Structures are given as structure tokens and as C-alpha cells.
UniProtKB/TrEMBL annotation:
Annotated family: Belongs to the short-chain dehydrogenases/reductases (SDR) family.
PANTHER family reported for this sequence: CHAIN DEHYDROGENASE, PUTATIVE (AFU_ORTHOLOGUE AFUA_5G01530)-RELATED, SHORT-CHAIN DEHYDROGENASE/REDUCTASE
Lineage, top ranks: Eukaryota, Fungi, Dikarya, Ascomycota, Pezizomycotina
UniProt protein name: Uncharacterized protein
Molecular function terms, GO-annotated: oxidoreductase activity
GO terms under cellular component: cytoplasm
Entry-linked Pfam families: adh_short (PF00106)
Species in which this protein is naturally found: Penicillium arizonense
GO BP annotations, alphabetical order: secondary metabolic process
Superkingdom of this protein's organism: Eukaryota
Length: 248
């Protein structure tokens, strides 16, 4: 069995997932499994990181969190190759820009809630084989019921309803998983990466940068590394961000 810490990241080919793979794999003794729904995008992202001079190791597995067959093949492949995972980062997510109505809410919930839950549940048996397991759900402050219902809070805008609802559901799932897994020593977190540059909101410069307001996804990645190495263990079971915790 590998001596490295094995970290699986869903949606690792771009954005926060990619930045996180880069940050973790820049340290020796880590192996990052880049789980991507599109294998060619996954291999391209992986080779970009390998040519950037990482110190850890990388591999790619096909994983579409909306496809049960893809999920079970990915579990099988990771189980055969590694026998366990130490960290599962459930990062794949969407805002489904451009869609409307039932299509929009359906797509957002299919990825951010059903996909996150079913992919996570499928990998939990491999996580339980770790001696220091960690499970992180990438959420958003926009999913906080407390912040959304506080009219004075900057995060309470009247926008992103479907996305907010999906992340609120993801947060509930995280609370439930924490209760179920804490006696098995799994450190469970919901994590808000902050408003950072990515294609989540669309591919125009305005959307990527959130009108110039978005920060660097490498900062989110560094905060995730803090969680993985244990610097945030006192916050297990909570909704964390890089500088503290959000109310649910
Ligand atoms: N960026 C922000 O400001 C921000 C703020 C708060 C929370 N978040 C959260 O951070 C996470 C990452 O978002 P991001 O900003 O990095 O966005 P992004 O650049 O759009 O990346 C999203 C990733 O998820 C993957 N993905 C989408 N649907 C998938 C599916 N069905 N199966 C597997 N992978 C799938 C995408 O794959 P493809 O490349 O194949 O599309 C991509 O790799 C999301 O959960 C998002 O809600 C982001």
C-alpha cells in the first residue's frame, strides 16, 4: 500500500480543484487522484501540473458525479490501485450559467447535491481504511441560512437562489455525515473557498473575475491544505473558511 497521503479531488481539471491538486502535489509524500468527468481534460490538467515540477505524484480517474456507473467504476479503480484514500474533497459543482427554470434547478441539484452525496457515499468505505481520514465538502457562504436571512449581511443578496439552496442542502448533508462518521475518526468539514476566479459563473472575463471582485483560487487551495494537515482539526464538523467558521 502507498505510504503517501492519498487525496482524491472531484472536478480537479480546472478552477479550485485544479489549484488544490497543484498545491497538494507541490509537497512530497502526497498522491493526488484527479477525478474528472472528461478524461482528456483530466490528462491535460495532470500533465500541466507534472511539467510544473511537482514533488508529489498525480493520477487521473474518470468520475462524473451525476453518473452512477462512472462512480462505481472510479471506486473500483481506486480500490484496486490504492486500496484506500486518506482525503476526499467533494469539489465538483456548478452554477449552470445560461440555463433557466426546471433545467437550471435540476442541473444544479443533480451535481451539487445528488452527485456530491452519491459520490461521497461511494468512497466512504475506502476512506474508512485510512488511519487519518478527512472528508471535505466544497460549499459556499451563499448556502448559509443564517447569513442569507440577515439583511445586514453582504452575503444576503437576492440572487443565486437555486445555487444557494443546493449549498444549504450540501451543508445539511455534511452535518449528517459528521455525526455518522465522527466515531470512526473521520474529520468532516464543509468548506467555503471564498469568491475566487474560475469558470463557475461563466467564461467571460467579467464572469471569471466576478467583475474584478474574485480572489486567487490558490488561497482556497492553501486553506484546504491547512485542513488536510490537521491545522483545523478543532473545527471538524463545522462550516469553515480560510479565516474561521461560518454559521450554518
Ligand atoms: N469560484 C468561486 O468563487 C466559488 C465560491 C464558492 C464555492 N465554490 C465552489 O467551488 C467548487 C469548484 O468550483 P470552481 O469555482 O472551481 O468552478 P469551475 O472552474 O467551474 O470547476 C468546476 C469543476 O467541477 C467539475 N464538474 C461539474 N460537474 C461535474 C460532474 N457532473 N462530475 C464531475 N465533475 C463535474 C467541472 O468539470 P468540467 O471541467 O468537465 O466542466 C470542473 O472541473 C464548486 O463546488 C463551487 O460551487 C466556488
Amino acid at each position: 500500500m502507498s505510504e503517501s497521503t492519498i487525496v482524491l479531488i472531484t472536478g480537479a481539471n480546472q478552477g479550485i480543484g485544479y489549484a488544490t491538486a497543484k498545491t497538494i502535489a507541490s509537497h512530497p509524500n502526497y498522491h493526488v487522484i484527479m477525478a474528472c468527468r472528461n478524461l482528456s481534460k483530466g490528462y491535460e490538467a495532470c500533465s500541466q501540473l507534472e511539467t510544473a515540477g511537482i514533488k508529489g505524484t498525480l493520477s487521473v480517474v474518470q468520475l462524473d458525479v451525476e453518473d452512477d456507473i462512472s462512480i462505481s467504476k472510479a471506486v473500483h479503480s481506486v480500490s484496486n490501485e490504492f486500496g484506500r484514500i486518506d482525503v476526499f474533497i467533494s469539489n465538483a459543482g456548478t452554477l449552470s450559467p445560461g440555463s433557466t427554470g426546471r433545467d437550471k434547478i435540476g442541473k444544479i441539484f443533480s451535481t451539487n447535491v445528488f452527485g456530491a452525496m452519491l459520490a461521497t457515499e461511494a468512497f466512504i468505505p475506502l476512506l474508512l481504511k485510512s488511519t487519518h481520514p478527512c472528508l471535505i465538502q466544497i460549499s459556499s457562504a451563499l448556502g448559509s441560512l443564517v447569513l442569507a436571512s440577515d439583511a445586514n449581511n453582504a452575503k444576503s443578496s437576492e440572487t443565486w437562489d437555486e445555487y444557494r439552496m443546493s449549498k444549504a442542502a450540501l451543508n445539511m448533508m455534511t452535518i449528517q455525515m459528521h455525526k455518522r462518521l465522527k466515531n470512526q475518526k473521520v474529520r468532516v468539514f464543509a468548506f467555503c473557498p471564498g469568491l475566487v476566479r474560475s469558470n463557475l459563473r461563466g467564461v467571460s472575463e467579467e464572469a471569471v473575475t466576478a467583475q474584478g471582485n474574485a480572489g486567487d483560487p490558490m488561497e482556497s487551495a492553501n486553506a484546504l491544505l491547512d485542513i488536510i494537515v490537521g491545522r483545523r482539526d478543532k473545527d471538524a464538523g463545522k462550516f469553515v473558511h480560510k479565516d474561521g467558521c461560518y454559521p450554518w
